[in-house]
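for the recovery benchmark. tokens below, seq after
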């Protein structure tokens, strides 16, 4: 085997390994037993804020698993921080002073999920997609945006959620050529409706201009 062929083979093997790691949560085990075990340390906060904001605790666990694999010090290349990977602007809007404090991070991330669930009338697909890509992108494409990262993200979160909850929420089909519309998608009714809250990752500057009273100074 020539050196060139060897180099190509090594490169292909590396790509396969990387793809496999991505499919399993970037090397983080996403099976229910492991996720529940990792969540034990934060169970009180998860349950407290899940109950407070009307979000399934299993959904909160699933988002944390996919976002950070329960690493309280996680920082993404885009600056998202902590367990639920809050960017600084989102953390500020939802009252999180220290994104690396697990209790505060779970509080802010769960409140954001709740806000998104309200915004999309309980549509899980859109709410989860917006948590990753911002509600501006979801609104633009009227469904899950045609971004592979976001489409895989929604599938991974729902896969973990199904494993934890025993539900069988259908996974959206991955396609990079067109947005995934969510007509007829699964919706989960929330026990209560929250008062108007602050917007999430996308379009907040415009909303701030329209309703400055919602923002802290």
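predicted aa per position
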């Amino acid at each position: 085997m020539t050196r060139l062929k060897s180099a190509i083979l090594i490169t292909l093997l590396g790509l396969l390994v990387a793809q496999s790691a991505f499919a399993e949560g970037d090397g983080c085990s996403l099976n229910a037993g492991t996720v529940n075990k990792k969540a034990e340390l934060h169970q009180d906060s998860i349950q407290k804020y899940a109950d407070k904001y009307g979000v399934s605790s299993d959904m909160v666990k699933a988002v944390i698993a996919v976002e950070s694999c329960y690493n309280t010090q996680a920082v993404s290349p885009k600056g998202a921080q902590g367990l639920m990977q809050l960017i600084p602007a989102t953390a500020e809007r939802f009252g999180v002073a220290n994104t690396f404090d697990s209790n505060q991070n779970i509080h802010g991330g769960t409140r954001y999920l709740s806000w998104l669930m309200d915004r999309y009338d309980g549509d899980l697909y859109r709410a989860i997609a917006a948590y990753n890509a911002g509600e501006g992108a979801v609104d633009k494409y009227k469904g899950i945006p045609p971004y592979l990262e976001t489409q895989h993200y929604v599938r991974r979160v729902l896969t973990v959620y199904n494993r934890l909850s025993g539900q069988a929420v259908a996974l959206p089909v991955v396609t990079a050529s067109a947005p995934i519309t969510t007509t007829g998608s699964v919706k989960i009714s929330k026990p209560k409706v929250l008062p108007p809250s602050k917007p999430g990752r996308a379009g907040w500057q415009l909303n701030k201009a329209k309703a400055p009273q919602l923002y802290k100074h």
